[in-house]
């Protein structure tokens, strides 16, 4: 009896999630009257705006990931090694982006760094891009920090550090050659989550007026019929590809095969 | 000045004085064990030599250089940990090469040294394996090779055998000692296992409560323990309180029973001193070559194969004695009266 209910619940869930997706995919293929075609996709992919905004967002994502790794890995390592008492506080800070809306943060940025402020970051495109990158890093902080911290939990940070130190290694060598390689699967999963967040982010990019993929999707959605559906399917495919890559990355490293 | 010199080391964590005034001079190539129960400060001493703890007072000199204020990576030490601490992302060969790479040793020289080290530990063909593919004993040998590869001045071993099973533990301690002798490297070994300390070391430091109770060769430590703690911690001991009757000749009474200890005593007439006997020093039955015969009542017999452990009551005290098994001598009956013979020189005098 229980099993029957479980199956009903499962089927309901499947229908609830799959049907809209299916409808959207079906619609995206219906640009040509009467037959299914990839016309909408062709139009979207050929749009120079699509290429430009998508490239912009991917580059922003990569820069954000690089910055995130440089910020989070040493921080999480140091907190684990030297400041275990600070961990609840650091975790609290990394969770703040989940409770502070992006729009509040971006308004704060604009007020603080506008052209008549002490640090006029929004005065140039590069400055604004940097500002946007900081915003993205903040949005990805909860995921990045948690992923790296979990990765660090799996290794004996203190003893490995001492072993490396006894052989003459300084902090830079320890981080680059001992800590980072051992948390790489965790860092990669954090990186793919960051990629997914940055590709779809709308609020910050729109309010800072950057030509990102999120605002482009919104503009397209407001003006076209079939293309937004095609774009949504593409965006879904990217997100799922990222999730697949997270799965892959955990199997990526040879030395952890025994543990998984 | 000795090669490795620890003088008046102290370490406190808050109100807790973990190491109190610890000094030792270790000669080049010497193997010194720090032996003691957990919490005696032995690991803290080792970590201060390694630079992982800063002494509250005192100084550490290695090869004439004061290293007290130096960071661990400036001290030229090699360390082996209880948990192996191999880098899981690196192969065995890369692990061993780590210290050489940090030191900027060139590729060819590095490869040669790694091969030499792997050969030394008998794992020459496992260089391409990852640590998780090795047994515990193999991992610990790799850890030893890794620590030795950059030619450290001092080797620090922090209970390296404690995580291994009994058989590997015994074979590996022989191997570690052989490698240490062959390279002539000055070594500090921390353990709570007296058998390890006695069998491997040139000198043993028995520690309790943050102090060195006694520093001496394994033979001295076992046969002439300086304090009651050392006597009780190292090996099994039968202890008695004896009353001195003549300090000059070493005559005492043991629960009314007169005996001669055959040496002058540093105690006044009528004073009570602690004397002790090792289980293997006593012999069941009357032995004409031994001066002292103690009447005893057998209370328990434990037949362990090669060794028969007999528990008796002597002078109102429990007395353990070990005899070797012999085909023609069945173990004595429990509850029976017996005589135990002891050499007068076998009595150990206990200090405080």
UniProtKB/TrEMBL annotation, chain A:
Domain of life: Bacteria
InterPro entries reported for this sequence: MetI-like, MetI-like_sf
Location relative to the cell: Cell inner membrane; Cell membrane
Location (main, coarse): membrane
Keywords: Cell inner membrane, Cell membrane, Membrane, Transmembrane, Transmembrane helix, Transport
Protein family (similarity comment): Belongs to the binding-protein-dependent transport system permease family.
UniProt protein name: Spermidine/putrescine transport system permease protein PotB
UniProtKB/TrEMBL annotation, chain B:
Any single GO BP term: quaternary ammonium group transport
Entry's EC annotation: 3.6.3.31
GO MF annotations in UniProt: ATP binding; ATP hydrolysis activity; transmembrane transporter activity
SMART domains: AAA
Membrane-crossing segments per the record: none
Coiled-coil ranges from the UniProt annotation: none
ABC transporter domain boundaries: 4-234
Listed name of the protein: Spermidine/putrescine import ATP-binding protein PotA
A GO cellular-component term linked to this record: ATP-binding cassette (ABC) transporter complex
InterPro entries: AAA+_ATPase, ABC_SmlMolc_Importer, ABC_transporter-like_ATP-bd, ABC_transporter-like_CS, Mo/tungstate-bd_C_term_dom, P-loop_NTPase, Transp-assoc_OB_typ2
Alphabetized UniProt keyword annotations: ATP-binding, Hydrolase, Nucleotide-binding, Transport
Domain of life: Bacteria
